[in-house]
Design goal:
- By secondary structure, the protein is an alpha/beta fold.
- Helices cover 42% and strands 15% of the residues.
- It has a 6-stranded mixed β-sheet with strand order 2-1-3-4-5-6, covered by helices on one side.
- Strand 4 and strand 5 form a beta hairpin.
- Helix 6 packs across helix 9 and helix 8 runs antiparallel to helix 9.
- The radius of gyration is 19 Å and the shape is globular.
- The chain starts with 10 loop residues before the first helix and ends in an 11-residue tail after the last strand.
């Protein structure tokens, strides 16, 4: 349940005003007086701890909020968001491994039963990977983005070889970001063990902003419509 559900103004009225922090504080008060109050017992339970069954790895893009798209309640999903919904391959070298730490915590401590990687339409990170727009940029001017989306270099080669610079290439790059992250998830020993034991399922999803369409990745590495008969059981 989102703050929009308890707002006296219509959604159209709210969208006419750019949201800055003061408006967010107003949103907090709407949330506190509406959804939080209505679900007070649930929040009391959550104070004692969390036990989500699903982890979602999604993009930081402001248009694709996983809890809203999947209509979940507080405490139901453990979420990590970053540029282009990427999972790096398993490695233990230097540096800070925020995504890896979240995956480790979700799988080994929370014991989530599913990990969903959700890509989306018009992803700026995937576009940067495909076009290499920041390839020579300094850090602070796109260099960090370039370093991060280089995780998709292999996918980029495959997409360009098949689609060149056509319009289809952008969408295929977005789908490949999901496939790449799922492949990288399987480089984590504890993910492989849990998947082999049948206690963890990996799933891929893709959200179309324009039409609200959801695609799911099946075992044949193909994306299918979420309303297809086999969609609910689709595993990557």
């Amino acid at each position: 349940m989102t703050g929009l559900s308890c707002c006296n103004a219509t959604i159209d009225e709210r969208l006419t005003v750019p949201t800055h922090f003061p408006e967010m504080i107003e949103g907090y008060h709407r949330f506190k007086d509406g959804p939080w109050e209505a679900q007070r017992e649930r929040w009391k339970e959550l104070q004692e701890g969390q036990s989500p069954k699903v982890m979602i790895i999604a993009c930081s893009d402001s248009r694709v909020e996983p809890a809203q798209i999947f209509d979940t309640l507080p405490g139901e999903v453990f979420v990590v968001r970053n540029v282009a919904n990427l999972v790096p391959p398993y490695e233990t070298g230097g540096g800070h491994h925020g995504v890896s730490a979240a995956i480790e915590f979700a799988v080994t401590q929370l014991k989530v039963e599913e990990i969903v990687v959700m890509g989306h339409e018009k992803c700026g990170g995937c576009k940067a990977a495909l076009t290499q727009a920041f390839a020579d940029a300094d850090h602070g001017a796109g260099g960090f983005v370039s370093d991060w989306v280089s995780l998709l270099d292999g996918a980029r080669e495959k997409v360009i070889a098949k689609f060149g610079d056509s319009d289809q290439a952008g969408r295929e790059m977005e789908l490949e970001s999901v496939r790449t992250s799922i492949a990288n998830l399987r480089t984590f020993p504890f993910v492989r063990r849990a998947e082999a034991a049948g206690t963890l399922a990996l799933r891929g999803a893709y959200f179309g902003i324009d039409k609200g369409q959801m695609l799911l990745l099946n075992a044949d590495d193909e994306f299918i419509q979420a309303d297809a008969p086999e969609a609910k059981s689709a595993k990557a």
